[in-house]
Design brief:
The chain is of the alpha/beta class. The protein folds into two domains: 2-81, no CATH class; 86-278, no CATH class. It is 51% helix and 16% strand. It has helices at 2-14, 19-36, 38-52, 57-80, 86-91, 98-105, 121-130, 145-157, 170-177, 209-217, 242-245, 253-274, and strands spanning 93-94, 111-115, 135-139, 161-164, 181-185, 194-199, 202-207, 220-228, 234-238. The strands form two sheets. Strands 1-9-8-2-5-3-4 form a seven-stranded mixed beta sheet, sandwiched between helices. A hairpin with a 2-residue loop joins strand 6 and strand 7. The chain starts with a helix and ends in a 21-residue tail after the last helix.
Protein backbone atom coordinates (compact mmCIF):
# COMPACT_ATOMS: atom_id res chain seq x y z
CA UNK A 1 0.00 0.00 0.00
CA UNK A 2 2.89 2.39 0.77
CA UNK A 3 4.22 2.05 -2.79
CA UNK A 4 0.77 2.89 -4.17
CA UNK A 5 0.49 6.12 -2.19
CA UNK A 6 4.08 7.08 -2.99
CA UNK A 7 3.37 6.61 -6.68
CA UNK A 8 0.15 8.65 -6.44
CA UNK A 9 2.08 11.40 -4.65
CA UNK A 10 4.81 11.31 -7.31
CA UNK A 11 2.20 11.72 -10.06
CA UNK A 12 0.57 14.62 -8.20
CA UNK A 13 3.88 16.44 -7.65
CA UNK A 14 5.67 15.82 -10.96
CA UNK A 15 3.05 15.67 -13.72
CA UNK A 16 2.46 19.47 -13.61
CA UNK A 17 6.22 20.11 -13.95
CA UNK A 18 7.99 20.62 -17.28
CA UNK A 19 9.56 17.32 -18.31
CA UNK A 20 13.18 18.40 -17.84
CA UNK A 21 12.46 19.85 -14.41
CA UNK A 22 10.84 16.52 -13.56
CA UNK A 23 14.07 14.79 -14.58
CA UNK A 24 16.02 16.99 -12.17
CA UNK A 25 13.67 16.13 -9.33
CA UNK A 26 13.98 12.45 -10.24
CA UNK A 27 17.79 12.68 -10.11
CA UNK A 28 17.67 13.96 -6.53
CA UNK A 29 15.16 11.31 -5.46
CA UNK A 30 17.23 8.61 -7.20
CA UNK A 31 20.31 9.58 -5.18
CA UNK A 32 18.29 9.25 -1.97
CA UNK A 33 16.92 5.87 -3.07
CA UNK A 34 20.41 4.66 -3.95
CA UNK A 35 21.46 5.13 -0.33
CA UNK A 36 18.33 3.71 1.34
CA UNK A 37 17.18 0.85 -0.91
CA UNK A 38 19.95 -1.48 0.23
CA UNK A 39 18.82 -4.77 -1.35
CA UNK A 40 18.09 -3.21 -4.74
CA UNK A 41 21.41 -1.35 -4.69
CA UNK A 42 23.34 -4.48 -3.73
CA UNK A 43 21.74 -6.60 -6.45
CA UNK A 44 22.21 -3.92 -9.09
CA UNK A 45 25.85 -3.39 -8.13
CA UNK A 46 26.58 -7.12 -8.29
CA UNK A 47 24.96 -7.36 -11.72
CA UNK A 48 26.84 -4.34 -13.03
CA UNK A 49 30.13 -5.63 -11.63
CA UNK A 50 29.59 -8.72 -13.75
CA UNK A 51 28.65 -6.74 -16.87
CA UNK A 52 31.67 -4.45 -16.47
CA UNK A 53 33.99 -7.34 -15.59
CA UNK A 54 35.23 -5.19 -12.74
CA UNK A 55 35.59 -5.43 -8.98
CA UNK A 56 36.50 -1.72 -8.76
CA UNK A 57 33.85 -0.50 -6.33
CA UNK A 58 34.10 3.14 -7.41
CA UNK A 59 33.57 2.27 -11.06
CA UNK A 60 30.61 0.01 -10.31
CA UNK A 61 29.05 2.56 -7.92
CA UNK A 62 29.31 5.30 -10.54
CA UNK A 63 27.47 3.23 -13.15
CA UNK A 64 24.87 2.04 -10.60
CA UNK A 65 24.09 5.62 -9.56
CA UNK A 66 23.58 6.54 -13.21
CA UNK A 67 21.24 3.55 -13.54
CA UNK A 68 19.19 4.75 -10.56
CA UNK A 69 19.00 8.24 -12.11
CA UNK A 70 17.95 6.81 -15.47
CA UNK A 71 15.28 4.74 -13.75
CA UNK A 72 14.04 7.96 -12.14
CA UNK A 73 13.80 9.53 -15.59
CA UNK A 74 11.88 6.49 -16.79
CA UNK A 75 9.33 6.98 -13.99
CA UNK A 76 8.91 10.64 -14.97
CA UNK A 77 8.42 9.64 -18.61
CA UNK A 78 5.89 7.01 -17.57
CA UNK A 79 3.95 9.67 -15.67
CA UNK A 80 4.08 12.24 -18.49
CA UNK A 81 3.47 10.04 -21.52
CA UNK A 82 -0.27 9.40 -20.92
CA UNK A 83 -0.98 13.15 -21.17
CA UNK A 84 1.25 13.77 -24.20
CA UNK A 85 -0.27 14.23 -27.64
CA UNK A 86 0.30 11.57 -30.28
CA UNK A 87 2.43 14.10 -32.17
CA UNK A 88 4.69 14.61 -29.14
CA UNK A 89 5.03 10.87 -28.60
CA UNK A 90 5.95 10.41 -32.26
CA UNK A 91 8.48 13.23 -32.06
CA UNK A 92 10.37 11.35 -29.38
CA UNK A 93 10.69 8.22 -31.49
CA UNK A 94 13.91 8.02 -33.52
CA UNK A 95 13.66 4.89 -35.63
CA UNK A 96 14.88 3.86 -39.08
CA UNK A 97 13.67 0.26 -39.46
CA UNK A 98 10.05 0.83 -40.45
CA UNK A 99 10.32 -1.43 -43.51
CA UNK A 100 11.65 -4.34 -41.46
CA UNK A 101 9.00 -3.82 -38.79
CA UNK A 102 6.25 -3.63 -41.40
CA UNK A 103 7.52 -6.86 -42.97
CA UNK A 104 7.04 -8.85 -39.79
CA UNK A 105 3.94 -6.93 -38.64
CA UNK A 106 2.14 -7.62 -41.94
CA UNK A 107 3.01 -11.33 -42.01
CA UNK A 108 -0.19 -12.29 -40.18
CA UNK A 109 1.77 -14.42 -37.71
CA UNK A 110 1.97 -11.86 -34.93
CA UNK A 111 5.13 -10.35 -33.47
CA UNK A 112 6.68 -11.02 -30.06
CA UNK A 113 8.69 -7.91 -29.21
CA UNK A 114 11.01 -9.04 -26.41
CA UNK A 115 12.86 -6.53 -24.24
CA UNK A 116 14.31 -6.04 -20.76
CA UNK A 117 14.00 -3.51 -17.93
CA UNK A 118 16.21 -1.23 -19.99
CA UNK A 119 16.14 2.31 -21.32
CA UNK A 120 12.54 3.43 -21.83
CA UNK A 121 11.01 0.01 -22.40
CA UNK A 122 7.32 0.92 -21.92
CA UNK A 123 7.58 4.01 -24.07
CA UNK A 124 8.85 2.22 -27.15
CA UNK A 125 5.64 0.20 -27.21
CA UNK A 126 3.65 3.38 -26.60
CA UNK A 127 5.37 5.09 -29.53
CA UNK A 128 4.47 2.20 -31.85
CA UNK A 129 0.87 2.44 -30.64
CA UNK A 130 0.96 6.15 -31.52
CA UNK A 131 1.76 5.07 -35.08
CA UNK A 132 -1.36 2.85 -35.04
CA UNK A 133 0.39 -0.48 -34.63
CA UNK A 134 -1.82 -2.77 -32.49
CA UNK A 135 0.28 -3.30 -29.36
CA UNK A 136 -0.44 -5.63 -26.44
CA UNK A 137 1.76 -5.78 -23.35
CA UNK A 138 2.16 -8.59 -20.82
CA UNK A 139 2.64 -6.82 -17.50
CA UNK A 140 3.47 -7.77 -13.92
CA UNK A 141 1.07 -7.72 -11.02
CA UNK A 142 2.29 -5.84 -7.96
CA UNK A 143 0.41 -7.61 -5.19
CA UNK A 144 -1.95 -4.72 -4.45
CA UNK A 145 -5.10 -4.20 -6.56
CA UNK A 146 -5.10 -0.38 -6.43
CA UNK A 147 -1.46 -0.23 -7.53
CA UNK A 148 -2.18 -2.70 -10.33
CA UNK A 149 -5.12 -0.58 -11.47
CA UNK A 150 -3.08 2.64 -11.38
CA UNK A 151 -0.09 1.26 -13.30
CA UNK A 152 -2.16 -0.77 -15.77
CA UNK A 153 -4.47 2.16 -16.54
CA UNK A 154 -1.41 4.35 -17.19
CA UNK A 155 -0.18 1.81 -19.71
CA UNK A 156 -3.60 1.65 -21.35
CA UNK A 157 -3.54 5.45 -21.71
CA UNK A 158 -0.26 4.96 -23.58
CA UNK A 159 -2.28 3.09 -26.20
CA UNK A 160 -1.42 -0.48 -25.20
CA UNK A 161 -3.80 -3.32 -24.52
CA UNK A 162 -2.68 -4.60 -21.11
CA UNK A 163 -2.58 -8.33 -20.34
CA UNK A 164 -1.68 -9.10 -16.68
CA UNK A 165 0.90 -11.86 -16.25
CA UNK A 166 -1.54 -13.99 -14.26
CA UNK A 167 -4.05 -13.87 -17.13
CA UNK A 168 -1.75 -14.92 -19.94
CA UNK A 169 -3.60 -17.46 -22.05
CA UNK A 170 -6.35 -17.09 -24.66
CA UNK A 171 -5.97 -13.29 -24.91
CA UNK A 172 -2.32 -13.67 -25.93
CA UNK A 173 -3.04 -16.28 -28.56
CA UNK A 174 -5.98 -14.32 -29.96
CA UNK A 175 -3.85 -11.17 -30.26
CA UNK A 176 -1.11 -13.02 -32.14
CA UNK A 177 -3.64 -14.79 -34.34
CA UNK A 178 -4.89 -11.32 -35.35
CA UNK A 179 -1.30 -10.49 -36.35
CA UNK A 180 -0.76 -7.97 -33.55
CA UNK A 181 2.37 -7.04 -31.59
CA UNK A 182 2.87 -8.55 -28.13
CA UNK A 183 5.47 -6.79 -25.95
CA UNK A 184 6.99 -8.57 -22.97
CA UNK A 185 10.11 -8.53 -20.79
CA UNK A 186 12.49 -11.44 -20.32
CA UNK A 187 14.85 -10.51 -17.47
CA UNK A 188 12.52 -10.91 -14.45
CA UNK A 189 10.84 -14.33 -14.80
CA UNK A 190 7.99 -15.79 -12.80
CA UNK A 191 9.31 -18.58 -10.52
CA UNK A 192 7.71 -21.41 -12.51
CA UNK A 193 8.46 -19.99 -15.98
CA UNK A 194 12.25 -19.93 -16.16
CA UNK A 195 15.03 -21.23 -18.34
CA UNK A 196 18.78 -21.05 -17.66
CA UNK A 197 20.89 -19.86 -20.61
CA UNK A 198 24.34 -18.37 -21.09
CA UNK A 199 24.23 -14.58 -20.81
CA UNK A 200 27.36 -12.44 -20.86
CA UNK A 201 29.53 -15.47 -20.17
CA UNK A 202 27.67 -17.23 -17.36
CA UNK A 203 24.39 -19.08 -16.71
CA UNK A 204 21.49 -16.72 -15.97
CA UNK A 205 17.86 -17.49 -15.19
CA UNK A 206 15.45 -15.67 -17.50
CA UNK A 207 11.85 -16.04 -18.61
CA UNK A 208 10.90 -18.98 -20.81
CA UNK A 209 7.57 -17.34 -21.72
CA UNK A 210 8.65 -15.58 -24.98
CA UNK A 211 10.11 -18.75 -26.45
CA UNK A 212 7.18 -20.93 -25.40
CA UNK A 213 4.63 -18.53 -26.88
CA UNK A 214 6.61 -18.24 -30.12
CA UNK A 215 6.99 -22.00 -30.48
CA UNK A 216 3.29 -22.61 -29.87
CA UNK A 217 2.01 -19.85 -32.16
CA UNK A 218 4.64 -19.46 -34.89
CA UNK A 219 4.90 -15.73 -34.13
CA UNK A 220 7.94 -13.72 -35.19
CA UNK A 221 10.42 -12.99 -32.41
CA UNK A 222 11.99 -9.51 -32.44
CA UNK A 223 14.37 -8.63 -29.59
CA UNK A 224 13.95 -4.88 -29.08
CA UNK A 225 15.97 -2.59 -26.83
CA UNK A 226 14.59 0.92 -26.38
CA UNK A 227 17.49 3.26 -25.70
CA UNK A 228 17.30 6.67 -24.05
CA UNK A 229 19.04 9.10 -26.37
CA UNK A 230 21.66 11.66 -25.30
CA UNK A 231 19.06 14.45 -25.21
CA UNK A 232 16.50 12.20 -23.47
CA UNK A 233 14.70 11.51 -26.73
CA UNK A 234 13.53 7.95 -27.20
CA UNK A 235 15.40 5.70 -29.60
CA UNK A 236 13.90 2.29 -30.33
CA UNK A 237 16.15 -0.27 -31.98
CA UNK A 238 14.48 -3.59 -32.76
CA UNK A 239 17.07 -6.19 -33.72
CA UNK A 240 15.73 -8.20 -36.64
CA UNK A 241 18.14 -11.11 -36.29
CA UNK A 242 17.19 -13.67 -38.93
CA UNK A 243 18.27 -16.54 -36.67
CA UNK A 244 15.87 -15.30 -34.01
CA UNK A 245 12.90 -14.21 -36.11
CA UNK A 246 12.96 -17.33 -38.29
CA UNK A 247 13.98 -19.99 -35.79
CA UNK A 248 13.04 -23.47 -37.02
CA UNK A 249 11.84 -25.75 -34.18
CA UNK A 250 13.25 -29.25 -33.85
CA UNK A 251 10.15 -30.69 -32.20
CA UNK A 252 11.82 -31.07 -28.79
CA UNK A 253 10.08 -28.28 -26.84
CA UNK A 254 12.55 -27.95 -23.98
CA UNK A 255 15.51 -27.96 -26.34
CA UNK A 256 13.80 -25.40 -28.58
CA UNK A 257 12.92 -23.15 -25.63
CA UNK A 258 16.57 -23.15 -24.55
CA UNK A 259 17.89 -22.55 -28.08
CA UNK A 260 15.45 -19.76 -28.95
CA UNK A 261 15.93 -18.02 -25.60
CA UNK A 262 19.70 -18.21 -26.11
CA UNK A 263 19.34 -16.47 -29.48
CA UNK A 264 17.20 -13.75 -27.92
CA UNK A 265 19.75 -13.13 -25.16
CA UNK A 266 22.63 -13.10 -27.66
CA UNK A 267 20.84 -10.35 -29.59
CA UNK A 268 20.35 -8.34 -26.40
CA UNK A 269 23.90 -8.72 -25.04
CA UNK A 270 25.54 -5.90 -27.06
CA UNK A 271 23.12 -3.32 -25.66
CA UNK A 272 23.83 -4.32 -22.06
CA UNK A 273 27.59 -4.20 -22.70
CA UNK A 274 27.40 -0.78 -24.36
CA UNK A 275 24.82 0.84 -22.06
CA UNK A 276 24.90 -0.84 -18.62
CA UNK A 277 23.73 2.41 -17.02
CA UNK A 278 20.34 1.97 -18.75
CA UNK A 279 19.62 -1.49 -17.29
CA UNK A 280 17.36 -1.40 -14.22
CA UNK A 281 17.81 -4.93 -12.93
CA UNK A 282 17.20 -4.98 -9.19
CA UNK A 283 17.28 -8.75 -8.75
CA UNK A 284 20.44 -10.86 -8.87
CA UNK A 285 21.19 -12.28 -12.33
CA UNK A 286 24.47 -14.14 -11.67
CA UNK A 287 26.11 -15.88 -8.68
CA UNK A 288 27.34 -13.56 -5.95
CA UNK A 289 31.06 -12.90 -5.81
CA UNK A 290 31.69 -13.52 -9.51
CA UNK A 291 32.55 -9.94 -10.52
CA UNK A 292 35.64 -9.66 -12.64
CA UNK A 293 35.60 -13.39 -13.49
CA UNK A 294 33.51 -13.21 -16.68
CA UNK A 295 34.67 -15.43 -19.50
Amino acid sequence: MLVYWLFRLTILLTRPLPLRLGYRVAAVVAEICYHFFHRQRRNLNENLAWVLGSSDRRQVDAVARRAFRNFGKFVIDFIHFPVMSRQEVRRRLVFSQWNELDEVASSGRGVLMVSMHFGVFDLGAAALAAYDYPVNAIVDNYGYPKLNELVHSSREKLGMNVIPMDRVGPRVFRALKRGEILALLIDVPAPDQTVVVDFLGAPAEVSSVPARIALRTGAWVVPAMILRGPQDDTLIRPILDVRTARYEPTGDEERDVHALTTLIMQAIEPFIREHPEQWFIFRRMWPSGSAGQRR
